[in-house]
Design brief:
four-stranded antiparallel β-sheet, mainly beta, four-stranded mixed β-sheet, 6% helix, 11 strands, globular, 1 helix
């Protein structure tokens, strides 16, 4: 069965990003439906797949990573309006029988992502 997973690494600090809040939304036409909100564990991962089973369907989704709040809580000095606050990764699932892994590599002034395994 397919599933959706993620993890976050704080590349500036060289460690997993623990306690970072992530929201998952499904895009329906011009609207969005919030499916869940979780926080990363000490390993920068969530404790269970974000989606799996019958809930894991083809479609368009967004992951919203609350980077600004995480960075502030980690002791990073940010301006009043941080360069990166909420990082939105919009992606599509066309084969729900596969594993989709969407990691985030984060620093205060940059990030990257990819489809992992």
């Amino acid at each position: 069965m397919g599933r959706l997973t993620t993890h976050v690494l704080d590349t500036a600090a060289g460690r997993p990003a623990a306690g970072l809040v992530i929201e998952l939304l499904r895009r329906d036409g011009a609207g969005r439906t919030k499916l869940l909100q979780v926080a990363t564990n000490d390993d920068g991962r969530v404790d269970a797949p974000l989606l799996e089973g019958a809930e894991f369907a083809a479609g368009r989704y967004e992951l919203v990573f609350h980077a600004g709040a995480y960075l502030r809580a980690s002791g990073v000095a940010l301006s009043e309006v941080p360069f990166l606050d909420e990082i939105v990764i919009a992606f599509g699932i066309d084969s729900p029988e596969q594993h989709y892994h969407v990691p985030l590599l984060l620093s205060p002034y940059g990030y990257s992502t990819y489809r992992g395994s």
